[in-house]
Specification:
By secondary structure, this protein is α/β, with parallel strands linked by helices. The protein contains 19 helices and 26 strands. It binds 5-amino-5-deoxy-1-O-phosphono-D-mannitol. 5-amino-5-deoxy-1-O-phosphono-D-mannitol binds near residues 338 and 524.
Length: about 650
């Protein structure tokens, strides 16, 4: 979703901001802008330049601007309050334009604040919730509504004219940007990652955080802030992940950190050990393909160190073996692709550990009253570790007494920090909006958890766990085989689907869970409507959709329900469906009903999700490319969904 960058130092800020914003593009956005200090003529002003659309457009506009600024802030906006437009793009400014801010998150009480501020004479120029922040900071700084000179009187006049009680502005103003930001934050209910500059404090960026990520770093040529480490990793690998309620004041010569009262604090420095190459395309035409091709490595890396002395271990669980043994119910809570990883986990946990497991969309879980006891384990799955609904569900589950275990790809992310224990999926930075490699990392991690629960509950012997662990590791080579051999088959299948208006993904057992992920991938990147159904449910409704040429994409690998799935496909064939099947290598018979067959190597059914998902990812990508879609940045979607 939205992205923040900021820089103050001795280099040209505009280049650093544009490069940072480009790095944040993957998160999804619809407009972009920067605020740069402008000291021409000896008086500092703030110049704001904004554009709807891509950062490249903003870059072209800035190319024509002679901006010598060495301090500035930038933003990519994903619209929540107000449509994508120049006026709604960030940065937003105070009435007199001397303060500019960029903000990620949502201000829940913005309507009340806006009304109150308007009564005191503030003028609003956007539909955003963010803009109230700029005016609150302005009042705290100048003690007035309209600027350092004329404002106090105007504000007071507005109060008297309206005859309404309004909160008193912070007259006569603190004239300290950091203090003004702190004060503004006391008025705001909601989530924010915020960076502010002020023409009256050249070179200073004031930063605040609550429930929206902010990272800060000090490089050789200045101080940097961003909402994602990827935007400042060129400058430094040692970063401070700001905690909720912490503030930072960035200046060219250094950074100071304070708490909500303004008392100095010593921040924790985190070293980033992944390389920027991992976040670049590395010769692939798009991030999605690169990330799909990284999946064998993800399987291997996620398993490293898990079998020590012949025993499966997940030390980061934060739960003793005795506590694990007491678990009698598991909830997996997640959204989107992560939710689909949960559907696969349900099969494994119930089959191996015999513990009832429910999978719930975090957005639903948080507003239900689920049955939670101290022996309930809640497993929160989130690639980004930032998803607002998943975080809210974690908090709710913990208040109700559950142990919460996080599975995430991002070290130090809110999901990691707010869970009792965490497994990292070792996918490394995932850039394409459509999750691929992190899904595989999630399924492998959840499989480990299922094996551990089964071992602790004595449902599987140590020997059985060891054998299954070995087979789990074999899926890395099996994925590689698919990548190496099935390209043409996938291309042919994509040609058969690309002009359809809709497609059905079907399967049974594990295949039904995989079908969900196949359908989501196709719709999110190709904009082709797709739905997943348990194949046995087809005749209860969806089969009515099928007419000649309608694509049915089936997962029919060799499994205990293979014959049943084939019967369901025959019913589709009889109605003229165009059938694409993901089948097990060596299954020649399937070609009798399938128009296109994509093979995966023989694999135990319990691990088929890891391999059978790969051709579906590739199929979605091929179809999207054939339809002229941007596979890395699909419309309307954001990589991290940090709002409800
Ligand atoms: O970061 P998370 O795993 O919590 O994100 C959840 C979903 O927003 C995410 O999986 C989304 O569905 C992806 N675009 C799927 O490719």
């Amino acid at each position: 979703m939205c992205g923040i960058v900021g820089y103050t130092g001795d280099e040209l800020a505009k280049d650093i901001l544009i490069n940072g914003l480009k790095r944040l593009e993957y998160r999804g956005y619809d407009s972009a802008g920067v605020a740069l200090e402008d000291a021409t003529g000896g008086v500092t002003r703030i110049d704001v330049i904004r554009r709807v659309g891509k950062v490249a457009g903003l870059e072209s506009e800035l190319a024509g601007v002679d901006a010598a600024a060495t301090c500035g802030i930038g933003h990519t906006r994903w619209a929540t309050h107000g449509r994508p437009s120049m006026a709604n793009a960030h940065p937003h400014t105070s009435c007199d334009g001397r303060i500019a801010i960029v903000h990620n998150g949502i201000i829940e009480n913005f309507a009340e604040l806006r009304e109150e501020l308007a009564q005191r004479g503030h003028t609003f120029t956007s539909d955003t919730d963010t803009e109230v922040f700029a005016h609150l900071i302005e009042e705290a700084y100048y003690g007035c509504a309209t600027g350092p000179v004329a404002g106090a009187a105007a504000g007071a006049a507005a109060d008297m004219a309206s005859g309404q009680a309004t909160s008193a502005p912070a007259a006569p103003g603190c004239h300290d940007l950091m203090a003004a930001v702190r004060e503004a934050c006391t008025r705001v209910v909601g989530a924010y990652g915020l960076a502010a500059v002020c023409a009256d404090e050249p070179g200073v960026i004031a930063v605040a955080r609550k429930d929206s990520p902010i990272v800060i770093g000090r490089g050789a040529r200045g101080s940097y802030v961003a909402s994602d480490v990827i935007a400042l990793i060129d400058a430094t690998r040692d970063v401070v992940v700001l905690e909720d309620g912490q503030f930072a004041r960035l200046a060219p010569e250094g950074i100071t950190y304070t708490d909500a009262e303004g008392a100095p604090i010593e921040p924790t420095v985190t070293h980033i050990d992944w390389d920027i190459d991992m976040a670049e395309k590395g010769g692939y035409p798009d991030f999605m393909l690169k990330e799909i091709c990284e999946q064998p490595r993800v399987v291997r890396d996620t398993l490293v160190g898990r079998m020590t002395g012949g025993e499966l271990s997940i030390d980061e669980l934060g739960l003793s073996l005795e506590e694990l043994n007491l678990i009698d119910r598991v909830y997996v809570i997640a959204c989107g692709t992560s939710y689909h990883a949960g559907l696969i986990a349900k099969n494994l946990i119930e089959m191996w550990a015999r513990i009832p497991c429910e999978v719930e969309a975090a957005s639903e879980f948080r507003y239900r009253n689920p049955i939670i006891t101290p022996s309930t384990l809640v497993v929160a799955v989130s690639q980004s570790g930032e998803t607002a609904d998943t975080l809210a569900a974690i908090r709710d589950a913990r208040i109700k007494g559950a142990k919460v275990f996080g599975i995430t790809n991002v070290v130090g992310s809110p999901v990691a920090r707010e869970s009792d224990g965490v497994i990292y999926t070792k996918a490394n930075k995932e850039i394409a909006v459509a999750s691929t490699k992190s899904f595989i990392g999630q399924v492998v991690s959840l499989t480990l958890l299922a094996l551990l629960l089964a071992q602790v509950k004595y449902r599987l012997t140590v020997g059985q766990v060891r054998m299954l662990f070995r087979e789990l590791g074999d899926t890395a080579e099996q994925i590689q085989w698919i990548l190496d051999t099935q390209k043409d088959a996938i291309h042919e299948a994509a040609l058969a689907c690309k002009d359809a208006r809709s497609a059905l993904f079907v399967g049974r057992g594990m295949g039904a869970a995989i079908a969900n992920e196949g359908a989501l991938k196709l719709k999110e990147i190709s904009y082709l409507h797709a739905e997943a159904y348990a194949a046995g449910e087809m005749k209860h409704g969806p089969i009515a959709l099928i007419d000649p040429g309608f694509p049915v994409i089936a997962i029919a690998t060799k499994s205990p329900v293979y014959d049943k799935t084939v019967s369901n496909l025959k019913e589709c064939e009889a109605r003229g469906a165009k059938i694409v099947v993901v089948a097990t290598e060596g299954d020649e018979d399937i070609a009798q009903i399938a128009d296109h067959v994509i093979y995966i190597p023989p694999v135990r059914d319990t691990f088929s999700a890891i391999t059978a998902t790969v051709p579906l990812q590739l199929l979605a990508r091929e179809v999207a490319l054939m339809r002229g879609c941007d596979v890395d940045q699909p419309r309307n979607l954001a990589k991290s969904v940090t709002v409800e």
